[in-house]
Each structure stands twice: as C-alpha cells, then as structure tokens.
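Subject: design request, 345 residues
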C-alpha cells in the first residue's frame, strides 16, 4: 500500500516541481504508516530515481524502454494503469502540470479510481485521503474525498514545499517494461523546441504582470503608427522596456492579464487567470491590472500581492497586501532603480 509519486521528466532530467509532489506524499505516507515509491519513465530514469531517493522515496519503479523515451499519454497511461492494478497503491500523486493532469486522469479512469485534482492541502481521516482545492474562481475552498482503494491526486504547483534533500539515501529500484506494442500507438513525438531564456510562470517564485494599463505608455510611437496600432505599440514597448527590467532585477517571470493578451500586447503564454495559468508565487506584482475575478482566480494564491494602479477603487487593491496608487510608468522605473541599488549593496 505504498504511495506512488510520478516524477515528471524532460530530456532525462526531473522537472523540479516533482519534488513538491514527494513532499505532499509524505503527508499521506506519514498518516498511513507506509512508504513512498517514485515512478520514473523514460530517458535516464534510473538516475532520476536515485535522486528521488534523496527526496524521500524509499522505493522506485523505473521504465527506460525506448518507447517511453519521450512523454506520450497513451504509453505512459497504459504503464501507470498496469502498475496501479498490480501494486494497488493507496494513492498516486503528481504535480498538476499539463502532463500530470492528463496522465493521472487517464489512469484513474482506466482503473476506475477516484481523482482529487489541483489540491492545495492534504490530510487523511479514517484512512481516506481528503484534498482541499479552490473553487468558484478561488472565492471558496472545497474538500474532496476519494472513496476508492487507490486515490489519484494532483497537487497545485508551489502549494506544497519540496521534500527536503537527504544525500546518501538510495531507493530500492524495480524495473518495469512498457505496456503494449510501440507500433500500436497512432501518434509519435518528432522533436521538442524548448523555450530558452524564459522563466516558467508555474515555477516562478516572483511574477511581475501587466494589464490593460500598459497601453498608457507616454512614449510616442514611430512616425506613421496611429490609432489602435499606436496603443499596441505603446503597450508592447511598456512590457519590454518598463516592466521587463523590473522582472529581470527580481529574477521574475513576466505575466499578463487576459485583457492585455486579447489586445495583442503580449503573447498568450504569459496569461495569468482562469483561462490562462494558475500561479502561486511568493510575490506577485500586478501593474495596471484592475483585478477582474477571472484574473484573481489565477493569482489569488500568491503569498504576497503588490498592486500598482492609477484607480484607487480598482478591485485588485482588495486582494493586495501592498498597494501603490499611481502611474505605473512613473512607479516601475523608480522601483527598478531602487531595487538595483539595494541589490548592488
């Protein structure tokens, strides 16, 4: 009745947030007097499993078949489902990344097991796992209980501290084989094109986000650009030359509201909110963002929220711990300069 934790990997290395899943697994393992088993599939799985031992996994099941080299839902779900059927773990955990969500949902359906998704707190009562998760755009918290023999649980990124590293711990490793013939899968991965030089919003400890107010940039656009095109130019310039320098000083990721994304000020992959990314950074700085409920749903879990807005009645101020009423194009350069000086000392 071990607690399984799927360790997500990319190009033979563990995704750092997987150690948070091991940290969450300790809550269940401690309450049920059992141990933790890391599941590692794909390239360099044995080495990643050894690292999982340092983060609290007593056992590991690895599968390094060539068919599992790159993540593919059909292959990974088939193997995970088979391992659950044969070992009957009390729980299977993973971080609620895109891959973690779809993999655990597929395996839960295959094994007719309960799924608790996107949890921010865990506990065990009467032998059953109970997870707490936000609902209704983060306005309320709901508790979910899985009444099946195995409970599948995805945890929200940065909601649980990573398991503490203990060098020298070696897990007991078992080898598993891929399930099904490789040529039976209708799709295959040709290549990946990873983004370089960007901080992932989901993993970021600090996020600086811009909203509709980014279009109030006082800088004049080049000659010949006017109307809506001028507004978009001003906002893009603001993101690049006013907001990003602050993010760079803080080592932060750059986020945006849906209004900014829909207006073409910045690419969709920066969007924070109900229809974008849900984030839980230590510090979230909202610049020119009014704070619509859809945006709040994506960043409400931030530990400290700082709001900068000209409108003193903007809803974001009700959520923020610190607020600055003012023009972001005056506040951000001053804040960036002050932080550069402070960090230089």
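Subject: RE: design request

Done. Sequence follows.
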């Amino acid at each position: 009745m071990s607690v399984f934790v799927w360790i997500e990997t990319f190009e033979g290395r563990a995704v750092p947030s997987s150690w948070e899943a091991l940290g969450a697994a300790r809550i269940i393992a401690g309450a049920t007097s059992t141990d933790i088993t890391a599941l590692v599939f794909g390239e360099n799985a044995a080495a990643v499993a050894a690292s999982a031992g340092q983060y609290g996994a007593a056992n590991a099941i690895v599968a390094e078949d060539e068919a599992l080299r790159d993540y593919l839902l059909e292959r990974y779900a088939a193997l995970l489902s088979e391992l659950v059927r044969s070992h009957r773990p009390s729980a299977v955990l993973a971080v609620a990344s895109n891959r973690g969500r779809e993999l655990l949902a597929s395996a839960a359906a295959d094994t007719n097991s309960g799924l608790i998704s996107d949890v921010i707190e865990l506990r065990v009562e009467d032998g059953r796992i109970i997870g707490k998760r936000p609902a209704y755009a983060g306005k309320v918290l709901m508790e979910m209980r899985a009444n099946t023999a195995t409970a599948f649980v995805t945890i929200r990124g940065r909601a649980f501290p990573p398991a503490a590293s203990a060098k020298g711990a070696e897990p007991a490793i078992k080898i598993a084989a891929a399930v099904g013939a490789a040529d039976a899968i209708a799709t295959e991965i040709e290549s990946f094109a990873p983004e370089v030089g960007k901080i992932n919003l989901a993993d970021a400890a600090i996020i600086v986000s811009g909203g509709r107010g980014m279009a109030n940039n006082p800088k004049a656009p080049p000659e010949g650009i006017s109307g809506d095109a001028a507004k978009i130019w001003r906002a893009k310039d603001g993101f690049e030359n006013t907001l990003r320098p602050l993010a760079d000083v803080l080592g932060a990721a750059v986020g945006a509201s849906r209004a900014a994304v829909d207006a073409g000020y910045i690419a969709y992959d920066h969007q924070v909110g109900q229809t974008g990314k849900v984030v839980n950074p230590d510090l979230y700085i909202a610049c020119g963002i009014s704070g619509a409920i859809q945006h709040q749903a994506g960043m409400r879990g931030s530990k400290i929220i700082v709001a900068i807005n000209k409108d003193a009645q903007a809803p974001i101020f009700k959520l923020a711990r610190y607020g600055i009423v003012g023009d972001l194009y005056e506040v951000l350069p001053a804040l960036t300069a002050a932080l550069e000086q402070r960090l230089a000392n």
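The chain is about 30% helix and 25% strand.
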